[in-house]
Design brief:
36% of the residues lie in helices and 28% in strands. It is of the alpha/beta class and 302 residues long.
Length: 302
């Protein structure tokens, strides 16, 4: 069964509207003159700033973060020279920086296991035009997810994972995402631990949804852990994946109240809604270049 991509016209209009718009993300040690230097540079190159958000972590000598959106006529042709010229501004301030075209969709791979609720939320929002991305593929370690993905016209790859075949399975997964030039990997309740080698290749470009309000209940069966502690609030956490299990920089979290009357199945049912919303938000903010990572924290301009 094939379906028409209902977002085609909507995305085309968006791309046309944003074809001359770019996003600049900067982090650097805080000191006077940063904003003035960046603004002057953009003005001298004919750019018009349309939005600017900034944050100083510990104003007495900490880090400075800024996200700027600007319009520049003929952006695509001018962008390489703009980046080259900006390096001269960035160096004295010790900036880490990136400039992204707003209409450049990121290519995304979604990893799943048996649970489909987070996967479906991403597919629905993508189809509606609310998540501005290209879904390059869905990779699952159970074949049943192919039936979920097929109506959306997205390629599905079944890569079984067992303790004995885990290393080979991961090599296949890496080959698939690299061949498709994937920018972002989303672990949509993918119930497998990813190797440090894989994580290193996609540092701050691999988002996981953990079904608890981290740092509480790290690891497996968090709803059972929560029930065992008699919690009155459960939650979900969207975070970047690092070598530390469920310990990467947190992007988004949400919670909902529960009671002593709720058993483990009730907690799972309530939690599924929180998980899908939190993951979609985290992915959306990454796609819109709203996140800056510093050490094990994030600054999210939303």
């Amino acid at each position: 069964m094939n379906t028409v991509n209902r977002t085609e016209g909507k995305h085309t209009r968006r791309e046309l509207l944003n074809r001359d718009r770019a996003r600049m993300l900067i982090s650097c040690p805080d000191r006077p003159g940063i904003v003035a230097s960046v603004s002057r540079f953009l003005a001298e190159h004919g750019a018009n700033i349309v939005q600017s958000d900034q944050y100083t972590m510990d104003p007495s000598g900490g880090m400075f973060f800024i996200r700027i959106e600007f319009d520049l006529e003929g952006l695509e042709a001018k962008l390489p020279q703009l980046k080259q010229d900006f390096s001269g501004v960035a160096q004295p301030f010790e900036m880490s920086w990136e400039i992204y075209r707003s209409n450049q969709k990121k290519r995304v791979a979604i990893f799943v296991s048996k649970e489909d609720h987070c996967l479906l939320e991403l597919l629905w929002q993508w189809q509606a035009g609310d998540l501005y991305m290209d879904i390059a593929m869905v990779i699952g370690n159970h074949p049943e997810m192919a039936e979920v993905v097929e109506p959306f016209g997205v390629p599905f790859h079944y890569v079984p994972v067992t303790p004995e075949t885990k290393a080979e399975a991961e090599r296949r997964q890496i080959a698939l995402v690299q061949s498709a030039d994937v920018d972002l990997i989303v672990l949509a309740r993918y119930m497998q631990i990813v190797s440090p080698y894989f994580i290193e290749k996609y540092e701050n470009r691999m988002i996981n949804i953990h079904h608890s309000f981290l740092p509480a209940f790290v690891g497996g069966k968090p709803y059972a852990q929560a029930y065992g502690r008699g919690v009155k609030i459960i939650g979900a956490t969207g975070h970047y994946v690092t070598d530390e299990l469920d310990g990467g920089p947190i992007i988004e979290q949400d919670v909902q109240r529960v009671s002593h009357r709720d058993d483990v199945d009730d907690l799972k049912r309530i939690g599924r809604h929180i998980e899908r919303v939190v993951l979609a938000r985290a992915v959306s903010w990454h796609l819109e270049d709203r996140i800056l990572v510093h050490q094990n924290k994030t600054v999210v301009f939303n």
